[in-house]
User: Fold this.
Amino acid sequence: MPYDNAAADTDILIIGAGPAGLTASYLLTKAGKSVRVIERDPDYVGGISRTVRYGDFRFDIGGHRFFSKSREVVDLWDELLPDDFIDRPRLSRIFYGKKYYAYPLKAFEALMNLGIVTSTACMISYAWAKVTPIEPAKTFHQWVRNQFGEKLFSIFFRTYTEKVWGMSCDDISSDWAAQRIKGLSLSAAVWDGVKRSLGLHQKPAAELGHQGGVKSLIESFRYPRKGPGMMWEAAAAKIKAQGGEVIMDRELTALSFDEARQLWTVTTTSAAGETHVYCAREVISSAPITELASALQPTPRSVNAALSLRYRDFITVALIAKAASTFPDNWIYIHDPSVKVGRIQNFLSWSPEMAPQGYACLGLEYFCFEGDGVWTSKDEDLIALATKEIAQIGLLQPHEIVDGSVVRQAKAYPVYDDAYQTHVDAVREDLETNYPTLHLVGRNGMHKYNNQDHAMMTAMLTVENILAGQRQFDVWRVNEDAEYSEAGYSGAEDALTSERLVPRKVAA
Assistant:
């Protein structure tokens, strides 16, 4: 039944209960605004940062280390979840050529594993790349080759990256590399590796979750004791306590703006097919741009650009084993092309509360496109594949595995192909010009592969803009000038000596 939108029934309606949406909702309700959040999932808040429960087991959709250089983000984490963080050692390795390589690099171990011939070839290749750089570097391949040399690219970048994206490294924009790897140089990694190999490496003298240095090289991080979903479940509860609403099982189907009344009408549908209509003065969207543009009425002029954006999807196969322990890593990157799995998580290494005593829960991650052969495989076939591949890698034997569960995550990663930025720019210009009270935030809301803390920062700055009544902060600069999610400042152009992040204000 249509809603009479003569007056708003809430100040701000937020589409999506992921980190960005819940951050915005929490801060807005704290400031006294009436807020309603709609979420498609019937059970879980947190989006890709949720923690799935399967019996007595818990597992993540991808790993989520709680680490940020943003003082504001760290403070908000502590405010939302003050008593449930644990300190965890960071350990991850690369599996390549039937051998394991510590990640971050241990120089002497890598030298021994690769052999003197291959190691020498890597250094010669690196030197050649520095003498003959490809300028400008337009593709991921070219960017990494310039930074590390062709040999190291082929060993440690090509296979895993092409598993993740399902496309050639020659078709991936250099923006991806510049955002995700910038700041992690070969010389820095080698020097860090030499210090580790000689036992000279010391942990940064800073609190966990708020450190300096290259984030890829951190040795510890904080983690909610029952997974990242614990954070977002706490956020949802506090939003409700502050007078806000978080409504589950609501999929966006239509969104229209009444210019005369300056009001938004938002139509949603439940899984049972029930229609619900809401009205708000402003809308914050963390929904994928393709879905938002498809729902807007009348159809925006940038709809073709929006629909040209692509996503990579993701499956976690959780294998449950009767074993007190398996391997100490948080995760292992699988660079072996003979198996389909891209990364393997050990959830007990994230927190001992993720599985009952005497059991281990491993998450095998498969990257795919929604509708392809992997995505449409039966759950039992995916569990059988994961069981076979984990035995092939040598981490567990089939007889040790007693159960399994499968979770599919659509639109997990926005694709950075050679045209994505042109499409995003067209959508942004269209929506900002015609809908100043529609705000895009988060990973899929902005089609930016940002981390959890970056997604939160986009929401925090959007709230500042809403409360100020004008776009005083350019939210799109979050992570743009950062030295990488794994290396630099999370979400800001400038960092003061206090490390308070102050993105550039929009010019008047």
